[in-house]
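thread from #wetlab-drylab

HS: before we spend reagent money on co-crystallization trials with zinc ion, can we at least see a predicted complex? here's what I'd submit
DV: go for it
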Amino acid sequence: MAVVSIRKEILEAIIQHAIEDVPLECCGLLMGQGNLITHLRRMKNALQSPIRYAMEPQALLHFFKEVRSLQLNHLGIYHSHPTSDAYPSSIDTEQAYYPDCTYFIASLRAPLSPSVRAFSIVNEIVREKEIQVVD
Ligand SMILES: [Zn+2]
């Protein structure tokens, strides 16, 4: 299994965002260097939906400018599944436009024990990645 590395506080921030936005799906973008995710930017779920998410084009543009100015790379995208498993839905898979990114999904299906899983999605093929948490 391929490995993705992420700082502990970023992983915790994904879960925190997911909890805050219940019952809606939350979403956000991740940046870092090499294979290590070090920064998170919350994004607004333009759909304000409990089962889908989308980011606003203007907000995406702003993010990509920031990535460049920080000399980092866009490494990941996260969103939450408030009531379903941490696995990409068919829409998630169809709309995965970033083959080089890692897709993180936080599930609150078990509200007291949130789970996060990571995937690469290339040409609608989903492959799970091992999450390596870095202190
Ligand atoms: Zn989803």
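DV: The chain has a mean pLDDT of 97.
HS: ok that's useful, forwarding to the group
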